[in-house]
Fold these 4 entries.
Entry 1:
Amino acid sequence: MPTYYFDMKDGVPARDRSGLELLSDGAAIAHSKSLADKVRREKPKGHPDLRVVVIDESGREVHCERIYSDAT
């Protein structure tokens, strides 16, 4: 199974060093949406551009999930 990394970005990225083995890009995207939902519930202050960026094991960006919509 491929390994995917879930970096948190708000300007400077916080790198995910361990990654997670998942079956497909689709599974990684679903996981990023779940992570974003968890962060939304925690309501971190001072990070209006926060997002989860999914990177595959080759270094390709697979998906970018915004934590807050433009309306938030």
Entry 2:
Amino acid sequence: MELDPLLDDRGTRIIVCCGAGGVGKTTTAAALGVRAAERGRRVVVLTIDPARRLAQSMGIDSLDNTPRKVEGIKGSDGGELHAMMLDMKRTFDEIVEAHADPARARAILENPFYQSLSAGFAGTQEYMAMEKLGQLRARDEWDLIVVDTPPSRSALDFLDAPKRLGSFLDGKFIKLLMAPAKVGGRAGMKFLNVGMSMMTGTLGKLLGGQFLKDVQTFVAAMDTMFGGFRTRADATYKLLQAPGTAFLVVATPERDALREAAYFVERLAAEEMPLAGLVLNRVHGSGAAGLSAERARAAAENLDEGRIVDQGDGKTGQRGCPATDPEPSDLATAATPAVPAGSEAAPTAATGPAAQHADALGDEARNDETHDARALGTEALDAVDVRQLTAGLLRLHAERMRVLAREQHTRDRFTARHPEVAVTEVAALPGDVHDLAGLRAIGDRLTGGRTPSA
């Protein structure tokens, strides 16, 4: 898959990075944003990642619901990068404020049921991501929007959210709660008092009377806005199907991640949404791929059993043979004549400076002998340590080759099932990405190691 042509194409207005949780969608989206900006595009990256790694990698203290310019981008031709993090509740509040009069908006925003719904209702985050995408596209301030989809349990939640919200708004429960307000007048009150007394009494016992009242108040206030939710959701869904949108499915070379990726590829095809390809992230490699796992394990076992030894002379051969070299103690003895027992004569040559010099030579020789013995012992220990270390490295290499084989097998299964999907591999980095330089490195790997043009 060639990503630079996709980023350079001015017809590409939206790139959606999707996939299972924990596969690197946020990093991929940020790296694409940096690379596109440094190739001359005006880019905004929308992330829904609660870990806030995107802000840290871009040198921004914090991200919020307002796009913020990223400094340090080496863009050409006016290229700029902005980044923002979806504030789910704030986005919901903005919709209410934009589509309701002030009094009604205040009543909705202060409603306890609305506050619970906007803060954590199932699917709300995914739906609000779609809403924010529609808002950014409508502003036409950026010529490329890169979306990091929510870290949902299932990657398909992003596409399903508008339909789920529509089903909720069209559900029988909501319609039943809306019925009294739609009837209106005395007839409505009569309907409420007679037709719903049993239902509200039962629900009041199950949910609590105050909760049911909050729900009814919320539904009455939101009645005029329900149609707008559905209309905007449908418009954003069509926007995702438009030719200017490109989906990138991100996965790691693991069975579960690629199974989810395959499911997503099939779903995109069924929904007629444009798929650019698969980003296979964190792929492992080896600089010694010619050494198989079997050979590495066999070599490690040989080292452990002592079957691989050093056959050279080593340092012992350099010192000469003990049979031909005189012992240091012999030199000392030869230099010291015998003194008759009981002799207390004045110092002579045997007890004078020459003898003392010979004794010093003997001490020095003995010290050298002790040092050599210790050195030989250290060398022997070092040899054992080297063998153990080498055996450990060989086993580590064998494990790495096993991982490589498993990753290749998993990828081959995916490509056999979906040969039409273009794939780009991103080699695993030795550490985490925490700055623009790291994002540039990821961008280089995404595009096959080519650096951005000046």
Entry 3:
Amino acid sequence: MSDEQGFSVREQRAALTLASIFGMRMLGLFMIMPVFALYGTDLIGFSPLWVGICIGAYGLTQSLLQIPAGWLSDRIGRKPVIYGGLVLFALGSGVAALSESVYGVAAGRALQGCGAIAAAILALAADVTREEHRTKAMAIIGVCIGISFAVAMVAGPLLASVAGLSGVFWVTALLALLAMLLVYFGLPGGNIRGQIRDVTAAPELFGRLLKDRQLLRLDFGILLLHMTLTAVFVAFPLSLLDAGLAAGHHWWLYLPALLLSFVLIIPFLILGARRNMNKVLFQGSILVMMTALVLMAVGQGQLWLLALAMVLYFTAFNFMEASLPAFLSMLAPAGAKGTAMGIYSTSQFLGAFLGGICGGVLYQQLGGTGVFLLVAMTMAVWFWVAAGMANVSQVRSHILPISGNMEDSVVTEQLLQRLMALPGVQEALVIPEEKAAYLKVDANLFELDQARRLVNL
């Protein structure tokens, strides 16, 4: 059992429960990706364009509602928003399961996306964990999302081969119901602290962050990464079918490719952190993804080439998916990480929608080879954009609760000046209404205990 100075049992339980809720929802969204092009052929109106729309439809509604849902959780509470989002997700799954046309499936997927609970989950994670352990809670949630993607690539083909496309959607509805039970039985009361700027968006910061070129590079990157993902899975399952791998056996390729990719990225993540090579390795991963896409294009009908391409693709995807949020955390101004993450997440889901549309249009006009080659060309654009990225590795953010009266503006200004004078502090922001100080620091120079003593004087 963890003591109260460490990551307490209560905090661990809350983090694992929230991660499970998030993971179940993402599992339901991802499972359709590797199977819809294969098992949706009997639906009225089926076409490559509608394959892309159905795969990516959730991204449009998710991108529109992500930030508003986070604001709503600040006002009415985290749990009501999470419950409401899961209800919408379950209803959307049911609509898709009962639909006999691609139009109904697209409507169901869009309704699934309306259950935009990511911001509320992250805010509740911040509510129920102390600042010094919040990073651990967020890391647990991030790992669970990665696991859900891996499980979806295997579970989707397996479920579809047994229960068909509607069976996949019914399972996603069941996952939403199970997630609601976890909310009820597994989460604490959820004492709301109002806005916590490291996890929720502040409207007054949008203009400033949308002018920040470093953050815009990351937003553009995550948009392209998820645009590529949905576009690839409009075409890749059909390429496997043409290469002789039966639809029910596609997981035979996805499972080892994913496992191998997870093994391959570990040394690169360690190397990037220890040798300050994040930028070089990130640009290298863009080139690896471009190579994978070209191999998909030239490997039509050759299963071994498609398998190699998928290993390279998953390796690059998983490395960039892990790296981009870390870069954002290091580059976001003090007290603006929640807003920066809101813009970033909106870009991510918008990319999923655009990828579905583009993948469907390209496949309809040019076939799978055209999809892979044109998407590979976008990697060249991304490589050029990423050339201007800052190479950061030791920047950290901290939120310090302030004791004492903060109504006097002179006292607030004096505290801000003292914080800025501490070794390693790059930016500081004191918010009297929240009785909190937000710091952006160089981890090699900053001493957290010294800052805590200062804010508790």
Entry 4:
Amino acid sequence: MDFDADRYVWVQVADELRKRIAAGIYQPRQPVPSENQLIGEFGIARGTVRKVISHLRDEGTVYTVPRLGTFVSEPPKADDTGSPSGT
């Protein structure tokens, strides 16, 4: 991956993981690569990987289970608009 100097590295890695999730490379309820795998693949620091995962978790894209890993969240349902039924 060639990093764009105009954007933070963690943002670029988060975008790449989102693309892979959208493309079905990482499926819902399946694990995303471990910290060590992401460090090796992208050549970034552990702190950067943790920032990426934290951001994706905060936006609901992934969730973490202690001692098991980080997994892809289920996509929102099509009818999950937040409005009461029938409106």
